[in-house]
Amino acid sequence: MSTHSPNETKVAFLGAGNMGAPMAGNLAKAGFQVTVWNRTAPSAGLELAGSRGCKIARTVEEALKGSNVVCSCVTDGPALRSVLFAPGRDLKQLLCKDGVVMDFSTIGPVEARGISEQLANYGVRFVDAPVTGGDIGARDGTLTFMVGGRTEDLESVRPLLNAMGKKIVHAGAVGSGQSLKLVNQLLCGANLLAVVEAFQVAEKLGMDRSLVVEACGGGAAGSWQLVNLGPKTIAQDHRPGFRAAHLLKDLRFLRDALANASSQP
Fold this sequence. Notes:
The chain is an alpha/beta fold. Helix content is 51%, strand content 15%. The chain has helices at residues 20-29, 44-51, 60-64, 77-84, 91-94, 109-120, 134-140, 151-164, 176-204, 209-216, 224-234, 244-262; strands spanning 10-14, 33-37, 55-56, 69-72, 100-103, 125-128, 131-132, 143-148, 165-172. Helix 9 packs across helix 12 (244-262).
C-alpha cells in the first residue's frame, strides 16, 4: 500500500466551508493536487481555496475523477452519503485504484462504520479523522486529528494530515475517531460555558473581562476556549467559526452513542 505524498497525489476535497476551505488550501500549499467542490457555489470558501492554488470543480464527479484520496468536510452523515453514494455515482470507476476516503466531519461512530462498509463494496478504504482546533487551527495548519481506521490506511494518508495539522492521534478502528471527537465536543461545550460564566462573575465583581484572560489563560484554569475565544467575545467579534447548532448536533451524537453502548452486553 503506497503512501500518498505531495506532488504525486490527486486529492478531491468535498466541502469548502469555514473549516474545509483553509484545510484544502494548506494541502495545495504543501504540493498536493487539490480539486475542491462545494454544494453552494460561488462561495467565499471556494474563492479562498482557489486563491491558495486549488482547482474548483463544478460537479462532484469532476472533483472525484482520477483522485487518489477523497477528503470530506461536510455537515453530517446524510450530507456525506449524498455526495459519495448519489444514484449513478460509481466510485470504483471515478477513483484511482486503492482509493481512500478520509472524512473530517463529525458524523458519529455508527454512521462512520456504516459508510466504511458501503465504501468497501467499491474497493475503497475509509478513515474517519474528525478534527479539533477550530477555524483558527484550520487556517494556521495546527489542527489535531482523531483518527479511526487501520494502521496501514492511516500511514498512507499521514502526509496529508501533516500538511493540515500538528497532532495525529490514532484512536483505533473505524469509528473510534468519531467516539473520541464526541468526548472532545463535550469538553469544548463545558469549557466554553465556564468561560462565559467566568466573564459574568468577573463583571459582577467589578473586574474587566480581559483580566480573566490575562491572569487565568496560562494557569490551571486556562483552556483553548478562554485563550482563543475569550478575546473575540470581549471584542464582540461575532464572525462565524463553529456554529452552536453543530455543537448541539454533536452532543446528540454523544447521547445516542452512550445509549447504544449501554445496550451492549
